[in-house]
Amino acid sequence: MLKVLIVDDEYLARIELTRLLSMHADIEIVGEAEDGHQALELLKKTSVDLVFVDIQMPEMDGLEFAKQAESEQFHLVFCTAFSEHAVDAFELNAFDYIVKPIMPDRLEAVLNKVRLVQESHDETESDDIQCLPDNHGLLLKFGSDYKIVRINEIFRFESLGNHVAVYSDSGKSYLHISLSKVEKRLDPTLFFKASRSDIVRVDQIEKIEEGMASGSLQVHMNNGQEIDVSRRQVQLLRKVFSIDSF
Asked: Does one domain contain both 97 and 172?
């Protein structure tokens, strides 16, 4: 069950979002707020998984709320009629962004993405962590569209702050998750952690050369990307491609 908080100064907007969310059996609306101040007070009393927040509100707007809220405790989704705020929203590590009027299919896509991350988090917290199968699909956003990308189509994961960039033949997308959590779900025989910021798919490595730093290496991927391998990972990489691997 996903616990949801709705933050919007417009009563009708809250009613409409409540109606759309009520169509999903795993959603529980635990509170509503008319501005950022009220929302912050509610967060002190109630644990939530997902917050839908408008940007333009009196007293405290959505952007200021995002700056003050401990958003690592929940997923933050901005809902607004003003798409020009998208850059500001994602600079504040928003999980996603919905332009009003909210379309049911767009809302469902956001909820599915939250469910996927939540499921991954719950599983990584368990004692028995299982690698995702190579045909497991991830719902990723490319521009304004969403696409399911299989693990076997992904050739690189790159840590970028609180997000992970995902590189595939479909392009570049993002997951709101840490690289360490991604690593725990990947098959180590298929993926190699080149450094603290990069994980690459082994069968997509075309060649390996000496790196710029002493004792380092650089892998060249089939798509032309060049990725540095940290010195502490060099021996592991050599082992992956050694005769002893057979």
From this structure: no
The verdict on 61 and 150 lying in the same domain is no
Q: Indicate whether 154 and 108 sit together in one domain.
A: no
List beta partners, residue 43. Answer: none
- How far is residue 34's CA from residue 98's CA, in Å, rounded to a whole number? 18
Q: Where does a domain end: 121, 148, 163?
A: 121
From first to last of its 246 residues, the chain has per-residue pLDDT tens of: 899 999 999 999 999 999 999 999 999 999 999 999 999 999 989 999 999 999 889 889 888 888 888 666 788 898 887 655 444 444 455 788 888 899 999 999 899 888 887 776 655 554 455 788 888 888 888 888 888 899 999 999 999 877 899 999 999 999 888 888 899 889 999 999 999 899 999 999 999 998 887 778 999 999 999 999 988 889 889 888 874 544
DSSP letters spanning 101-134? SPPHHHHHHHHHHHHHHHHHHHHHHSSS--PPPT
Tokens of 126: 């368990």
User: Contact at 8 Å (CB) between 35 and 58?
Assistant: yes
- Contact indicator for 229, 194 with CB cutoff of 8 Å: yes
Q: Which tokens sit at 73? A: 């405790």
Residue 78 located in a structural domain = yes
Whether the pTM exceeds 0.70: the reply is: no
Shared-domain flag, residues 6 and 39: yes
Check which CATH number belongs to the domain holding 187 and give it. Answer: 2.40.50.1020
| Alpha helix (H) residue ranges in 192-230 | none
- Our measurement of the distance from residue 65's CA atom to the centroid of its chain's CA atoms, rounded to an integer in Å, reads 20
CA dihedral for 192, 195, 199, 204, sign (positive or negative): negative
